Amino acid sequence: MAQISQDLGAPQVLVNNAGSDDRHDFAEVTPQYWDQRIAINLRHQFFAAQAVAEGMKAIGSGSIINMSSISWMIPGRQLSVYNTAKAAIVGMTRSLAHDLGEAGIRVNSVLPGAILTERQRKLWMSQEYEREVLNRQCIKRHLLPDDVARLVLFLAADDSEAITNQSHIIDGGWI
Predict the structure, then answer these.
(1) CA–CA separation, 19 and 72 (whole Å)
(2) Strand intervals (E) in 31-172
(3) Peptide bond into 75 cis (omega under 30)
(4) pLDDT band at 75 (very low <50, low <70, confident <90, very high)
(5) CA torsion 113→98→161→70, rounded to 10°?
(6) Which of 70, 82, 96, 108 is catalytic?
């Protein structure tokens, strides 16, 4: 983040989007697995936001978009550590919105549902799960990465300059 700021100037937008939804058995989670999964799904979001905040404050604006998931709201099975991290992102988003709002920095979270990415197709999208998803969604179609990207671009743009401290669910009406 420091190199980016040095080379390009203070970031005006941060999209915190990294994670891993590997399935796991609650009874088999070790402290090492917990720490690794929390680091992948939560830790980086906090410290990336911290790394860009001063630069955003200096320019008087910015947008931080934290990717979460609806998984913790359903809740998805065999995802206890992932769900914990994704729920924490919503709490962190709300805290950072209050901490950074006076400096003109917006902080929002995006909670996708069952987005049909290549990873989802390969690992989780069985015919049974596909039927479950489409039955639960109000909009009976596959949700695609572009659907999420358009929401993220809106939150990054000045068009959303009055929107902060919000969790934006994009799940075809599942929740």
Answers:
(1) 14
(2) 62-67, 105-112, 167-170
(3) yes
(4) confident
(5) 0
(6) 82
Place of tokens 């990415």: 117
- DSSP-derived 3-state class of residue 146: helix
Q: Is 129 a catalytic residue?
A: no
Task: Give the whole-angstrom CA distance, residue 121 versus residue 143.
Answer: 12
- Strands of the 167-170 sheet, one edge to the other: 13-16, 62-67, 105-112, 167-170
Query: Which residue ranges form the domains of the chain, and what is each CATH number?
Result: 2-170 (3.40.50.720)
- The C-alpha atoms of residue 35 and residue 45 are separated, in whole angstroms, by 15
CA distance 92 to 83: 14
Mean pLDDT of all residues in 113-142: 92
pLDDT of residue 18: 86
pLDDT the model gives residue 121: 87
Tell me: the pLDDT tens digits for 123-135?
878 899 899 999 9
Q: Where are the beta strands (DSSP E) in 22-133?
A: 62-67, 105-112
For residue 110, pLDDT over 90 is answered with yes
The amino acid that residue 20 corresponds to is S
Measured at the CA of 116, the angle between CA 1 and CA 37, to 5 degrees, comes to 45
